[in-house]
Each structure stands twice: as structure tokens, then as C-alpha cells.
């Protein structure tokens, strides 16, 4: 039914009569939620109608001293045989002011104030609703001057919705799904859940260089029997926004654990060996033997065909990092050829792919020159993130082989980077090879500390430690303000990797015995803050896929995978040192936090290994690569959409991520 026709039909919008079961705690429930005032519902019906009933009760399975926790069930009953309708639940934020800050994991973070040019820009309005399968946790948090009110949904279990691009603006989409929409209305101070998901003010469709969006599509579902929308209401206090996110994540994890949504993890060393043997094929199949050697950066996901002639030092290609990994894999499986390839990669980049002390970002095997493919690669300049990653790779290769020349080249490169450090301790995004600043955003800062710490530990040279502490203090300030942005070079927005590398940096400084105890405690607090910011990007539920989609057929689970940024809203396997480091950091937390974090470390490690194609199960890809872009929602990265891999894979970094994570988690940690 077309919406223009539907305008002639009177919409049946009512506020439902709500009931609640008090049990033996009427007073406490009434103080927490006055249903007659705080929860409202409405219905939009195309055909027939539905009735609604809401029940709220204290959630007795968990006890917190400082948290009010309630379970709400909204039951939807069709009139007649079936009804085609949409149901919306709004929860009022009683007593919250115009200064309220909202948080929706993975899509709306600290007001998205660093993403004004992106699809999810605050300039587009104050009312936002997102599809549930875009969210690592179906959670909306409101924070206002120490008060926290959050709504956590019991996640969806089935989805037969179709690509929204099949509908034109003004169409009515009738979906068979229990994927809901979650969001907030900052003007009316309400948290919103609707079923089926109705996204507003836009549907974020894809991002290549510029966001591509669709207008909202009016969505309806067939209600032919009683359906429930179940969610939890969390009320507690927090000192700041960062603590609000931390506490809400912990409570969400505990609830999902109690409800059986988070499954147990059982690592088997045979599985680890199987995955490493499969990844070994990457170093066999995609090696480039040239005066600058490496491994191809981009291949087709389903065929394994090489897409570009680029080999990239770091970031998406990780050729130098994979030189180190080739040495590790070769030593582990007694493959001398892989060890020799890794050595050749490291030497060739040191000898032939630098301007002064700074590495090229990328080598074009067709032109035999540095890549020139703006805005990703520039022949006359480099990104500080890539240079720090390359330096770290050279150092880790030195640790594998013990070649003193590599250590010396590493130290000279670190000294050259220190000369670029800003007065506030940060490192800007991009420089010319002569050292002229080109892009001033401080996104290179996140990747500096591991390099600087290792340089100091090898030499005892105070300049390295002084530089590490300067950038460390800069990161502490970002963590206190919950500002993690701009670290992914193709998505200059709020992102996961900024959180993860802030955690890695602060954890390494906290662990450093040569730093005064009082200062180490500052870094411990920074590590804790950035840890929970990082974890908010990781799925703690399994998105449902339709039986006709690849991910349903291969049994892909999203639990433990993670979103990328508010601009790139696919999931991937970015881990590197993170699982091992959070597992170790958990020993410095209290008992309950320790158990939760160690379990989460196991979950993210296993989930990433489950994506790896193996001889036993190629997972819809090809042996030797790890798919990069995993579409968990109808957003896509240029092709595919929900339930599919993107057609191409920046497979260099995915292999580097998994080999590094497995090595650190199960064998010999680098830090």
C-alpha cells in the first residue's frame, strides 16, 4: 500500500492503557517507574488493529547495591486473525534536562560532535532511531549531571526483512522480523523502541567516499499472535559519562548472561592450530617478490583474486607487520621459506621504501613507486598511524630474529617521529617527508606509546620515555572527556580503534615499573575508562539472519565481533594485542569485573577465529584470507548488504590481526 494512498486513511493512534504487576515491591517500582506517566505506547495500523499491555517488575535475577533494575514486557495482541501494524514504546526521562547526553553503542557517541560531515550528524536533528542489528548492544543511555537512565532490549531472534533500497520513498514496507528500532528524542526527553524497526531521520545505506542515505521507509509487521517487546530499565548514578558507559555495559553483560544470550566459550588448542595452518596459506599465496616485497593488500573475498597491485606497509595492508608474522608462522611450522620471505619483507622496506627516516605508506608494484591514490595514499607524504605501525612491526620482527640492524633502524625511526611531536604531546595525522604538518588532527597519537615504550626499554634513553609520557597524558585527557576519534584513516569519526589503542597505551604505561606509582594509577584509570569504551563496540548478542542469506547458511555468529566506527558500521575482526591485554588487565580489577572481562576476552578471541576459512570449512570465502567487511545489517560497503561479505577484502590487516592475536593469546605475548 502506497503512503500517498494511506494519507486518506485515518491513522489509529492511541495511548494504550497500561497495567503493571507490583508483586511485593509496589513502593520501589512506583518510585522507579510510574507507568501512567513514564511509559507510553502508540500504534500505526494499516490493516485491523492491535491492543497493548505493559507489565513492569523488579528484575530479581541480579542484585546491585546502587542500581534500580526493572524488566518491562509490552505484549501486543492482534484483533481478528492478524493485524498489520507498527508499535512504538516511549520511556520518559523524568527530571532530565536539556543538557542530557545520549549514547547508542556504535552509532551515537558523545553527540557525534566529530562527525558533522557524516551520515549520523547531530546537525540532522535531535530525534534518532537506529535498526537494532546496527548495534553491538541494543542499548540507549541518557546521562545528565550524574544521573543515568538506560534502556536495554532483549535482542531480536528472527529477521526476514529485505534490502530497504528495494522500496521507494513513500512506500510501506511489510517485514517479517522482530528487529526493532532503538533511539531517543532529545527534545521530549524520551528513549524510543519501535517494532518493526523504523529508522529516522534517515537510513544509512553505504559509505565509500561520501555517505549515501535513504529517506525513512514506513515499516509494518504482521501480528498474527501475541508478541512481546521486552526490555530492561536501568537507573543509577555515575560520576561522568565514561563511568555511565562502563556501568551500563557491565549490567548489560550480566543481564544477557543471566538470560542465556551470552554463550560459554571453550577454546581447543586443535582449533587454534587449524586456524594458524589456514592463515599460513596467505603467506604462501599472496607474497610479492620485488625490490619492495610484501603481501597483496586487497583480494576478492569469494575468489581470492588480487584486486590491486598495491602492497601497503601498514593499516589495511600490514605488509611489514605480516613480514614479522611470516617469520613467526614459518618458525612455528618449520617452514624455512616463510621465514626467509619475512626477512626479505623487513629488509626491503627498510632499504628501499623510505624517504629519510619515514616509511612509504604503500608500494605500487605496477609503477615500482610509492602509491599515489588520494585520499588514501600520497606519494609526497605519510600518515603517522602507518609509520608507527610499521616501526612497531620492525621492532617485533627484531624480537623474532634478533637482527641488531633492525633494532637500530627502529630506534632511528622513533627518534625521527619524536621530532614531529606537538607541544601538547600529540602526533598529527599526516606529514610531508620533510616534516611539514599537512593534517593536524591528533589521530596519530593513539599508536605512539607502544613504539616509544619499547624504544625506552631497549635503550634506557630518557627522551623516549619523556615522549611516551607526553603522549600518554594527552590520551588520558581524551579518555577523561570520552573523545576517541579519527584513528581509522578512511573514517575520520568516532571509532573503535581509537578506544582500543588508548587502552593499549595506558595499560602499557600503567604496567611500567619505572614510572612513579601515583602516575601509574592515573594510567590505570585511563586504561579502565578506555577498556569499557572499547568493549562498547563489541557485539554481545547474535544478530539473526534469514535462511536465504550466506551468514545463516555458514552459521556465522556476531557475538564477539565488533563495529568499526559511526561512519563504517560493518563488523570486522580487528584485535591485534587487545584480547591478551584485556585478559591480563583484568587481574588488576575486582573479582566480578575480572571474571566478566576474562570471559569477554575469550569470546572475542573465539569469534574472530570462527571467521577464518579453513580446509574443513571455508565459511563462504577462500583459504588464506580473512573476510574484512561483514555485513550484519542492510548497510553495506558498496555491495552486498545484510548477511554477506563485502566483495573485496583488505585481507592484509585481517590476517595480521588474527595471527598477532593468536600468538599473543595462546603462545608468546609481545608485551
Question: What's the helical proportion of residues?
Answer: 25-40%
How much of the sequence lies in strands comes to 15-25%
Number of helices: 17
The tally of strands reads 29
Mean pLDDT level: 92
CATH class of the largest domain: Mainly Alpha
Tally of separate domains: 2
Amino- and carboxy-terminal Cα gap:
60 Å
The low-pLDDT segments are 1-33
Gyration radius, in Å: 25 Å
Q: What sort of overall outline do the alpha carbons produce when their principal axes are compared?
A: globular
> What is the CATH architecture annotation of the largest domain?
Alpha/alpha barrel
Q: Which structural class matches the secondary elements? A: alpha+beta
CATH fold-level assignment of the largest domain: Glycosyltransferase
Q: Mind describing the biggest β-sheet?
A: 7 strands, mixed
What would you note in describing this structure?
- The chain is of the alpha+beta class.
- The protein contains 17 helices and 29 strands.
- 34% of the residues lie in helices and 20% in strands.
- The strands form nine sheets. Strands 1, 4, 6, 9, 10, 11 and 14 form a seven-stranded mixed β-sheet that branches. It has a six-stranded antiparallel β-sheet with strand order 2-3-15-8-7-5, covered by helices on one side.
- It is globular and about 80 Å long.
- The model is unreliable at 1-33 (pLDDT under 50).
